[in-house]
Amino acid sequence: MFMSKAVSRLSRKRPPSEIHDNDVRACSSQPNTSGFSKWAISLENLLEDPEGVKLFRNFLKREFSEENVLFWLECEEFKKIQDENLLHGKAQQIYKTYLCSKAATQVNVEGQSRLTENMLAHPHPFMFQKLQEQIFTLMKYDSYNRFLKSDVCQQIKQLEERAKNSSETDESVPKRASRIYNR
Q1: Is the pLDDT of residue 142 over 50?
Q2: Which of 19, 103, 132, 174 is disulfide-compatible with 75, CB 3.0–4.6 A?
Q3: Taking the alpha carbons of 63, 68, 23, 17 in that order, is the dihedral positive or negative?
C-alpha cells in the first residue's frame, strides 16, 4: 500500500516549480557516511540524499543552471511510471519544459531534436535515458566539482570534522579514566 501511494505521488503530473526537495528517496548502500563525506564520494550519493539535493539545487540556482538537476530528477520520476496515460502526459511535460526550443528551462543536450512526435506519442520509461546521461555527465564534471568546493560545502565539511574530532575526544575520555582507575 505504501509503495503504491509513493508511486502514485511520484507519478503525478506537475510543473518543475512544484518539484520538492523531499521527493528524492535516499537509498544508498554506503556505510554510515553522512552529509559532505557521503556527497564527496560521488554525484550519485549526492542525488540520493534529499538534503544534498536541496543544497545542490540552491547552488545551481545561483549558477543559473538549476534546470539540469530538475531535468535529471524528472527523468528519474518518469522511469518509475507504470500507467501508460501518466507516462504519455509526463513525456509531453518533460519535452515542453526542458527540451523543446521554446522551453523556458531548456537544458543543453545533444539530440533533443531527435525526439520525434512519434516517440512522444508512444513513450517508454527510458526514452529520455541518453539525454539524462548527458546532463548527469555535465553535472558530474562541471557543477558538482564546483559545488563540493563551494563555501556551503566547505562549512559542512568543517562542521563534520569538528563533530568527528569532538566525538573521538569524548570516546577517549572514558577509556583514559578506565585505564587510570584500573592501574
Answers
A1: yes
A2: 132
A3: positive
The residues, any chain, with a CB within 8 Å of residue 112's CB and separated by 6 or more, are 99, 100, 131
* Cα distances (angstroms) measured from residue 179 to each of 95, 126, 172: 67, 61, 11
Alpha-carbon distance of 103 to 120, in angstroms, equals 16
- Taking the whole predicted model, whether its pTM rises above 0.85 is answered as no
Identify the pLDDT of residue 173: 55
Q: CA–CA separation, 97 vs 150, rounded Å?
A: 28
Instruction: Give the pLDDT of residue 23.
Output: 43
Nearest to 27 by CA among 5, 50, 53: 50
E strand intervals along 13-154: none
Those residues with Cβ within 8 angstroms of residue 144's Cβ, 6 or more apart along the chain or in another chain? 43, 46, 56
Q: Mind listing the pLDDT tens digit for each residue in 103-115? A: 889 998 887 656 7
Q: Exposed/middle/buried for 49, CB within 10 Å: 0-12, 13-18, 19+?
A: buried
Task: Kindly indicate the confidence band of residue 32, based on its pLDDT and cuts at 50, 70 and 90.
Answer: very low
- Taking a C-beta distance cutoff of 8 angstroms, is the pair 120, 97 a contact? no
- What the block records as the C-alpha cell of 13 is 503530473
Residue 8 phi, psi (nearest 5): -60, -45
